[in-house]
Amino acid sequence: MMGFCKLTHFGVLRFDGVDTAAFLQGQLTCNVQALETSRSVYGGYCTPKGRLLASFLLWKNGEAYCMMLPRVLCEPVRKRLSMYILRAKVKAVDVSNETALFGLAGTGADAVVAQLESVTSIRLPQDRYLIAAPATYASAIDFAGAAQRDGVLWEQLDIEAGIPVIVPATQEQFVPQTVNLDLIGAVSFDKGCYPGQEIVARTHYLGRVKQRMVFAHLTSDTAPSPGDKLYSPSFDQSSGMIVNAVPALSGGYDALAVVQTADVASPEVRWKALDGPVLTLREPPYKLS
What we know:
By secondary structure, the chain is α+β, with helices and mostly antiparallel strands. The strands form three sheets. A six-stranded antiparallel beta sheet has the order 15-12-13-14-11-16. The protein has a five-stranded mixed beta sheet with strand order 8-9-7-1-10, covered by helices on one side. Strands 3-4-5-2-6 form a five-stranded antiparallel beta sheet, with helices on one face.
């Protein structure tokens, strides 16, 4: 069944100016300069220690670049990036209030998108589309034949696709490889320097990825939250963390969870305590390496 939802929990940063591509290339994990108009790429923004402050979807709109990330992180990320603009001809603006974001998924979505005008449409994993439009035009968009759903639909599709979303509770908890950004094309290893690049590259070339993100299901009446710790018998302390979680259609909760690579096939990874509820784990829809 085709459905659409308003993505009010996400916002958009817009970057303009003749130096924009070069500036973002030196700040983000993805290859900005290889991005073509109307195409998109996932990426990350790291501290100098290689820890993620944000994950995002970036697309090129004419000569400008638009970055979608959790709305709560838009202004902090804009301010931090703006500190490094210096003399570069770049303008970073939070356009969340001027931009309406929608998610569209399901059989027939291609035909609906083909009929839309005055919007930016981006095809993403899980046979879905991100639709971005001026807020003043949002009420005129006709998602003919699509049932309106809440934003949990989009979160569920992100989880099924193995796409992590960094939120305040998980900032500075992961290097990009830990949440599989390198496996979804969000990290370029031959583009040059950016904050944390040395650590990210060392992790890649030395093959020292000790944790990976997997799909998890939890049978519980209590909702897990990003940042919740995970435990397994092989470690004396916390061995992993919940990245994102949503209610599952079949009951319980579906989640993306970072675990020790040795625990990917383990039946004994538990939520919050060594005797807590067991997580059922499986690999995301791409190969872990």
